[in-house]
User: Fold this.
Amino acid sequence: MDQADQLRKLVSKHTKVRKVSRVITVTSGKGGVGKSTLSVNLAISLARLGKRVIILDADFGLANIEVMLGIRPQYNLADLMFRGKDLKDIITPGPENIGFISGGSGIQELSRLTRDQVIYLVSKLYELDEMADVIIVDTGAGIADSVLEFLSASNEVLIVATLEPTSITDAYALLKTLNRKSDFSKDSTVIRMVANRVKNSEEGEGLYRQLSLVVDKFLGIGMEYLGDIPQDQNSSKAIMAQEPLMISYPGSAASKSIAKIAQKIAQAEPAASSGSGITQLFNRWMKSIYKKNKKEN
Ligand SMILES: Nc1ncnc2c1ncn2[C@@H]1O[C@H](COP(=O)(O)OP(=O)(O)O)[C@@H](O)[C@H]1O
Ligand SMILES: [Mg+2]
Assistant:
């Protein structure tokens, strides 16, 4: 039995007897559309609905989540991967019982791991499925390899778009590239959209119609609509104050909309019966790394 077989056995053993957490990957075509704002406040809303939530900050370019929470994590994913830290060491406690993991340089390293390192990482991440009901992955924008790897491995993708024309075309381009990836499966992935920074709900619905029409017509992907978040100046005030909007301005229009979106997500059935969870995500990822390695050798 080679290492891959061993790992598959380990994964199937664990996923059969243990519950797995939902992994929701938040992404966008263009940067600066509100992914991190949504990730943090969605996490708090879901926590208020009784879920145990952990955010994985996979946008290695910017230290977004930690800035928004005003907390500096001591360790990150790279410390787990290379420096012998345990999962509990790299989960930083946030407000209202949410936890977050800073990707740090670990996210970039992920696509370069050797087989042994992936096996080690997956074995460590098993525990995450036990610790969280929902894991929210806040990705960087656009078509970077690491972002696409996350997206093609997740069951639930949440696209944030705004009315800026480039936000729409870039979101379409992202889905088009994702759709071409051999390890992406339309059938086991739910793609949902949130319209951010709109004037009113008609504007949000219009944006959804515009994007979902082309996504359906040219990619054959049915996209669900989760609703809109209005343009709200409290959003930037909360960032300045380094406290999530949901906590500092719970009655604001944006907070109320995000709470509604959280409710819809909580009610939605997990996307696929074929298993989800963070280890499943890394398991799929590992397969694609093997494929890539084979091609290169
Ligand atoms: N609904 C909103 N209303 C007003 N400003 C917003 C809204 N959502 C996000 N922003 C602002 O947009 C900027 C980018 O948001 P951020 O969440 O960091 O985006 P991303 O993670 O996609 O790069 C921030 O300054 C934030 O305050
Ligand atoms: Mg961000």
Notes: The longest strand covers residues 190-198. The beta strands are 22-27, 53-58, 91-93, 99-102, 134-139, 156-161, 190-198, 223-230. The CA atoms of residues 46 and 182 lie 32 Å apart. The chain has one domain: 20-276.
